[in-house]
Amino acid sequence: MRQALAIDYGRKWYVMIAVGTGIFLSTIDGSIVNIALPTLVRELATDFATVQWVVLAYLLTLTTLILGVGRLADMWGKKPIYITGFIVFTIGSVLCGLAPSVYWLIGFRVVQAVGGAMIMALGMAIVTESFPPSERGRALGLTGSMVSIGIVLGPTLGG
To answer: Reduced to 3 states, what is the DSSP secondary structure of residue 100?
Structure first.
């Protein structure tokens, strides 16, 4: 006869803060550049059609990778991939700030989106495992709110 292991939910709010921060950063980067597109055209000496790929590269990469990252996490574990996502996202963000041309910026946005996909794909799953069943609805509602806040604040902060 096997004894059921008691799950410790004592660190659930620390997990929520970490996951909420990751989700917020990933979603904010989807919309933060939109308001700056005309400035990027001028500063990077390019045309508007090219600079639109700064936004598109991020969003296309993010949406393309989310399902695959979820499957990868099923095989290798959520935590290591989530942490790797934070690292890749941070490196991509730094590189975006150092980009010498629009083409480098587009490439670095792809790197940033790879990390963002790791964060977005696993955030809700990690929160679901970190909260007891009776509190999961509220926890998922909070993570959903972070998505909305990130999308809304992106253009404001980008401006």
So the answer is: coil
Q: What is the number of helices (H) and of strands (E) in the chain?
A: 6, 0
- With beta carbons less than 8 A apart as the criterion, state whether 18 and 140 touch: no
Q: What pLDDT, in 10s, does the model give residues 52-78? A: 999 999 999 999 999 999 999 999 999
Q: Which residue, 145, 144, 118, 159, is CA-closest to 32?
A: 159
Going by C-beta distance under 8 Å and a sequence separation of 6 or more, which residues neighbour residue 113? Answer: 57, 58, 59, 60, 61, 62, 65, 92
Residues of the chain with pLDDT under 70: 1-6, 159
Domains of the chain, by residue range, sit at: 25-158
Tokens 């919309």, residue located: 31
CATH no. for 25-158:
1.20.1250.20
Tokens 């904010």 sit at which residue? 28
| d(C-alpha 63, C-alpha 39), whole Å | 26
pTM of the model: 0.86
* Separation between Cα atoms, residue 20 and residue 75, nearest integer Å: 24
Asked whether the beta carbons of 119 and 22 are under 8 A apart, the reply is yes
Decide: 47 and 41 in contact? Cβ < 8 Å.
yes
